[in-house]
Amino acid sequence: MKIMNLIYDDTKNSSDLYYKTGFKAPDPVIFFEIRKKTYLVLNDLELERGKSQAKVNKVLSLRERSERLKSRNIIDIIMDIISEYKINKVSVPYNFPSYIFSELRKRKVKIEASSSPIFFNERLVKSSTEIKEIKKTMKFTEKVLRNIIDKIKYSKVRNKLLYSDGKILTSQILRNDCQRQLVSLGLECSDCIISSGKHSALPHHEGAGPINESVPIIIDIFPRDIQTGYFADITRTVVKGRPSEILKKMFKVVKLGQKTGVELVKSGRDGKTIHNAIKRIFNEYGFLTDFSKKNPDGFIHSTGHGLGLDIHEPPRVSELSEILKLNQVITVEPGLYYPNIGGIRIEDTVVVTKAGCNNLTSFPKFFEI
After folding, report:
1. 151, 176, 269, 314: which sits with the fewest CB atoms below 10 Å from its CB?
2. What does pTM read for this prediction?
């Protein structure tokens, strides 16, 4: 059976397209793969750039095919490709355009959508080049993280509020500063998290408003290298001033849980084992998780996720069983969240190895600054 892998998308939406072609396409293009040979179909605007930049076996002209068919209809063009290459079955990503999918079915094409957000399974295991790119992104990210923490550290306290450069220090100020620094290093992160106080108890709250002394400040930076497309991900939690005893204990326990999680990572291990080990530590120290409440609290998210050309990729390190593989890149980021106390999260990015893992994160883990 002759199977064709087909993508119709741009590279902003499709990391799989960029992975296979190395070509940045701002508008939707046709990519197809047949028996490990890869093709791009491009209009005249992109044709020559594609021939010089795309890592495919052949770049085809959209105009020439359209003129021969006397049609610019994308369905007609795809059908022509299927006919020319005598394709028996078409495989597409899970987010393939539904209109095109249904129209191809109407024309009796045997077509199947992937059930995974990753279309090409080889993406799950990273090459040495990919690991190098992620490590480079991480290095720049840690530089920015250091600057943000220093800004908090050297802020002044007046009436329990933090001040910097004569102004009340807010999450927005820190986030804007973080984003400017990232861009200067060739990175982008439009949704980085710098949340404090009650907001820190909501894992994905981006943070808002003035920052008080003696409350947890979660800094979660997950930028993408603008040139290569590879992400980094790191989280640290700090406090300016004197934290409460319960916050100190929370930080100590999350740090222990995160350390345990990193130590348990290795190829062949079930991510469920890692997640449950961390959960047991939290329970033993009295930090229980309660999903029965309207707003659940405790350890309310998974331990980690894969990372590469997308910020969230398989595998998940969670209560669901999923075996880790050699050279996968994952995060280990347990956290505890209680509305009346705040939140604590610590995150490293690691490469899975046979004996354990290679931690791409070198930034220290401290609480009081």
Report:
1. 176
2. 0.94
